Amino acid sequence: MKINVISTERTHANIIRQMLLEGNPQRQITLLDGGLELLTEGFDTNIPDLIIIDGICPGEEEFKTLEQLSLQQPGLAIVLLCKEPSSDFLLNMMRVGVKDVLPLPLVPAALQATVTRIEQKSTLTTSSRKHGKTIAFIACKGGSGATFIATNLAYILAADQISHVALLDLNLQFGDASLFISDQIPSNTLADVAENITRLDASFLTSSMLHVLPNLGVLASPEDPENAIEIKPKHVEALLNLAKIEYDYIVLDIGRALNATSVMALDHADMIFLVLQETLPFIRDAKRLLHALQALGYSKDKIHLIVNRYEKGGEIQLEDVERTLGMKVFRTIPNSYAAVSASVNQGIPIIKIAQRDPVTKCLLEIAYTMGNTVQPKNGGWFSHLLHH
Ligand SMILES: Nc1ncnc2c1ncn2[C@@H]1O[C@H](COP(=O)(O)OP(=O)(O)OP(=O)(O)O)[C@@H](O)[C@H]1O
Ligand SMILES: [Mg+2]
């Protein structure tokens, strides 16, 4: 792995180099004397995999440079070594895509663990990059929670700061996915991508997305339902083919409609989640939807049931649902009115405002079954944030 160390103190930079080489003599280390103006030093010939910034705490302006850099170089990891970082500072760092902040004086084992983790994940992501996992969510009925689950899961999948996640709102008529995890208005939507489909490439796709995290892009559905008519299955197909190459996870909010466009998206999905609740109207519609999906030729092992807002001891038992629908429930997600409403009303992901809520815990577990390694107690600095 290629590592640049930016430091104003040459002696300390040398100590860091020594520590890095002791961990793995194969590491190619370049020491750069100076401040953050050196961030992109040497990039035209040789982009590093990791930049370690020693003892320089970025200010307002430099945050922007860091953010810009991690957007332009999604494969690049940045680690800061800082005296007594505050939790506000950590939050700001997370927003701009810094992978880890280690306190000074530097503990060799902590540096080693962080760099090794980045090395392992970067090999994992590069080898899996070309086969992004496509995960689709369909609501069996309005209000089932499909959008809430899809958006928050996408956020959690990206919280490892390594996985590149695309959330595509394919609920073309009434999409609202971006609002669940962001208060920003998307400047472009799927309609703009469809309209300029001949220009579609990785950078056009990135620039059409709203970036909720540097490694989480949301492609919003059109504001005006009329524009949705122009979005054709061939547009969605081109989009998904590209997204699979560029992202590790592609999360799709399909909404409720089964039509040519949504079926095209489902054809690309590795996993299809049907979201329902434990009342008869939901179960009836789930049954219809399951029949339709099977008639379309999707195999049962691609389809998974999520029972949302589940409460133990309700009138209808989980076994009744399973018997009626002829398949096991993949997961239940508890009902948690206060935490979910707060998250949805403010457009803030639930993991940020209710870290210990049972719903958050369930979503973390689902992410984990998808091969994602963010766990609240797993070290790494996202978990660090959770405890503030
Ligand atoms: N586990 C939960 N506990 C409590 N409330 C929940 C839970 N999941 C979702 N909700 C509530 O249900 C509402 C509807 O959820 P959401 O918009 O995700 O449904 P949907 O299936 O996408 O509906 P639509 O078909 O209209 O798009 C949310 O605004 C949220 O307040
Ligand atoms: Mg929805």
Query: Strand-residue fraction?
Result: 15-25%
Terminal-residue CA separation: 32 Å
Main β-sheet, spatial strand arrangement: 8-9-7-10-6-11-12-13
Binned, the helix content reads 40-55%
If you consult CATH, what is the topology of the largest domain?
A: Rossmann fold
CATH architecture of the largest domain: 3-Layer(aba) Sandwich
Total strands: the figure is: 13
What's the order of the H and E elements? EHEEHEHEHEHEHHHEEHHEHEHEHEHHHH
Number of helices: 17
Structural domain count = 2
What is the C-level CATH assignment of the largest domain? Alpha Beta
**Rg measurement, Å:** 22 Å
Mean pLDDT score, rounded? Answer: 89
What are the salient characteristics of this protein?
binds magnesium ion, about 20% strand, single chain, Rossmann fold, 13 strands, alpha/beta, five-stranded parallel β-sheet, about 400 residues, disordered C terminus, binds adenosine-5'-triphosphate
Please provide a written account of the structure.
- Strand 4 (77-82), helix 3 and strand 5 (100-103) form a beta-alpha-beta unit.
- Helices cover 44% and strands 19% of the residues.
- The protein is an alpha/beta fold and 388 residues long.
- It contains 17 helices and 13 strands.
- It has two domains: 2-127, 3-Layer(aba) Sandwich (Rossmann fold), CATH 3.40.50.2300; 132-386, 3-Layer(aba) Sandwich (Rossmann fold), CATH 3.40.50.300.
- The longest helix is centred in the first third of the chain and has 21 residues, at 108-128.
- Residues 376-381 and 384-388 have low confidence and may be disordered.
- The protein is globular and about 70 Å long.
- It has helices at 10-23, 60-72, 87-95, 108-128, 146-158, 177-181, 190-195, 202-208, 225-228, 233-246, 260-268, 280-295, 318-325, 337-346, 350-353, 358-369, 380-386, and strands at 2-7, 28-33, 50-54, 77-82, 100-103, 133-139, 165-169, 210-213, 216-219, 249-255, 271-276, 303-310, 329-334.
- The strands form two sheets. An eight-stranded mixed β-sheet has the order 8-9-7-10-6-11-12-13, sandwiched between helices.
- The chain binds adenosine-5'-triphosphate and magnesium ion (MG).
- Magnesium ion binds next to helix 5.
